[in-house]
Amino acid sequence: DIQMTQSPASLSASLGETVTIECRASEDIYNGLAWYQQKPGKSPQLLIYNANSLHTGVPSRFSGSGSGTQYSLKINSLQSEDVASYFCQQYYDYPFTFGSGTKLEIK
Amino acid sequence: QVTLKESGPGILQPSQTLSLTCSFSGFSLSTSGICVSWIRQPSGKGLEWLATICWEDSKGYNPSLKNRLTISKDTSNNQAFLKITSVDTADTAIYYCAPGPGWFAYWGQGTLVTVSS
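^ inputs. structure came back:
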């Protein structure tokens, strides 16, 4: 199985700041990576797919980058509505696997 | 417009079989390239992919659940199903279904399943 190591587990930042969340895969996943945002009590929402493609309707302050085994999600100009948990997911190979999540809070 | 709704028993006892239904609209599991997956999330924890079924009836299972999973579909009625045998308390979670080739752009609201004696 491909292991996804996500960091940090939690993050506190101020409004307007830029934050970065990272995921490392245990082997090359050839950009087969998605990022999700999940607010409390809600289903996950897709932000990024294919490592760097912005899903329809997602604000442009969200961006994804990376290749090989290292990937990151960047949120520019942090807004109060970005308070949520964020998960990465690899879909390069079965079994699909998720990172353990990052809980983002506002300082 | 893609919509999905998961349904299940709510509560069941250890050792029983869990049967879940995903009813969807806005796409068809008979369309080339379309797959539906099941994903679960214990309360306050992360996401775990369980199984995927595709339009041509290919299937993928999470080996961590060994041989306890069976995924199936009813194309005519736009439904997908998941059975989990021999449940125990560790199977308590919200269960989601989602379509997609790998990434999940649409999710149902999820159905909470509690395993308790």
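Strands of chain B lie at 3-7, 11-12, 18-25, 35-41, 48-54, 59-61, 69-74, 79-84, 93-99, 111-115. Chain B has a mean pLDDT of 96.
thumbs up if we can close this ticket
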